[in-house]
Design goal:
about 80 residues, 1 helix, rod-shaped, 2 strands, two-stranded antiparallel ribbon
Length: about 80
């Protein structure tokens, strides 16, 4: 018959349980980070669409309606409307 050491077995089970809990915590953290990244990427994508809409449609249309092809701003920057083929 073999010797059974219940205290050692219990300690091993507790250690394995703690390791599994730690692993589960890290998996949850990974999922949380992935969700945050997905939201940030969606935000960037929407911001790029808005930027493209303003620079490619709204501002050129407004300048065209005002008969402008060049606009210089107070800070020295300028906006030019040029045909894009």
């Amino acid at each position: 018959m073999s010797n059974i050491d219940f205290e050692t077995d219990k300690a091993n089970v507790i250690q394995k349980t703690e390791n599994i809990r730690s692993l589960a915590d890290q998996v949850e953290r990974l999922e949380s980070l992935q969700t945050r990244l997905d939201l940030q990427e969606d935000n960037i994508k929407n911001t790029k669409k808005e930027l493209e809409h303003l620079s490619g449609e709204v501002i050129p249309t407004m300048m065209s309606e005002m008969g402008l092809s060049h606009l210089k701003l107070m800070d020295g920057s300028s906006v030019d409307v040029k045909p894009n083929y």
